[in-house]
Amino acid sequence: MAPTRKATHAGSWYTKSGAKLDEELTGWVSAVKSTPELPLEFPVKGCKAIIAPHAGYSYSGATAAWAYKSVDVSAIERVFILGPSHHAYMDGCALSTCTEYATPLGSLVLDREAIKELAATGKFLEMDLQTDEDEHSVEMHLPYVRKIFADKQIKIVPILVGSISSSKELFFGSILAPYLASPSTLFIISSDFCWSG
Asked: Which of 118, 195, 125 is nearest to 161 (CA)?
């Protein structure tokens, strides 16, 4: 087992101060409001998945807040975080070997049982610690996850997604579908598609 994954992008992509980070996240989430033009109810009942950006928080923090405010945390016990690989080429998906991920707001424990089940399929690669810590696409969601689940001890399942074909997307989707179907599991899809409003 690898050690705790450090918050390697804290201090550059977002603040490393826990107090300042908590203040920023609180401000961004509080600013998300329903309007007459966009009547919404938060949290969204039955929300099972969100798509949110993974740019630096100065670019994407306020946008990501819309996704995170949508999450109904009451029944959630486990969070899958799927992030695209920017530094390591892979024709597949990779699992972390760490037992926990650090954030300036506190650590998040990995669901080693679920990771073991996925690894047992023989279809996932194993991510080394260097690859894990170099990648930002999963890390940029960790402070928000720790924040919205501040009063709960949830577990996470980070998955690094490589450059895969449509058929492999369907294949990995079929492996992950039973987890998505669980009422206690949330999926976060980390994306470059939109950094701001």
From this structure: 125
